[in-house]
Amino acid sequence: MPPFNGFPSGKVRMTPIPGPFFSELLPEIDDLGELKVTLYAFWFLDRLETPVRYITYADFAGDERLMCALQGESLDQALDRAVRRGTLLKVDLSPDDPAEVDGSQIYYFMNTARGRAAVQAIQGGQWRPDLQDHPPVSLESERPNIYRLYEENIGPLTPLIADMLREAEQTYRQEWIEEAVRIAVQNNVRRWKYVEAILRSWQEEGRDGTTPRDSEKDRRKYVEGEFADFIEH
Questions:
Q1: Which of 52-66, 95-109, 141-155 has the highest mean pLDDT?
Q2: What is the domain partition of the chain in residue ranges?
Q3: Which tens digit of pLDDT belongs to each residue from 180-199?
Q4: What is the pTM for the complete model shown?
């Protein structure tokens, strides 16, 4: 097993875990699989930005890194232990036809006040989860922080650059920064001022949030006009 290189510098997103987990649950959990799915549920639910947060069986089973981390342990058994312990609440709305069961209608809620209220609403027929409002989340999609993104794609981090990155992180959306860096790498203009010019242009002129198509027209957009000064000819 390769050694862990340490947590990256700069701003790193944290996952909040309630204190009772450490004082009441952790001393009692004696199964590694149960511990892993419990921690994964905390991480997954924290990354949802929906009024009611839940995780489906398909979410657990579809995350390759989680399944690899279980190392052959049974996901079903791990989840059953978490449910029996009372950490997770389970609602199964799967169709009667086994051929149509894919795990997307087996819902898990954290056993909190909101989780209990959601389960009661489902059981009372007052509410039903809508998978269209359930964004995909996986360990693979965990985004690097802006400092690591810069070091891996632009160059060494200096105190001055760190200050500019910190300011950019407070000004622009994360997905914008990632896309602007991608464009800089694609056009072989590995300079922060170029990335910043793209971000400023999007902020001033507006942007619909979609990823630009890889076309000659899009490429020329970022190598001509206001961006031409950053290109070495």
A1: 52-66
A2: 19-140, 143-230
A3: 999 999 999 999 999 999 99
A4: 0.65
Q: Is the pLDDT of residue 112 over 50?
A: yes
Looking at domain 143-230, its CATH class is mainly alpha
Q: What is the 3-state secondary structure (H, E, C) of the chain?
A: CCCCCCCCCCCCCCCCCCHHHHHHHCCCCCCHHHHHHHHHHHHHHHCCCCCCCCEEHHHHHHCHHHHHHHCCCCHHHHHHHHHHHCCEEEEECCCCCHHHCCCCCEEEEECCHHHHHHHHHHHCCCCCCCHHHCCCCCHHHCCCCHHHHHHHHCCCCCHHHHHHHHHHHHHCCHHHHHHHHHHHHHCCCCCHHHHHHHHHHHHHHCCCCCCCCCCHHHHHHCCCHHHHHHCCC
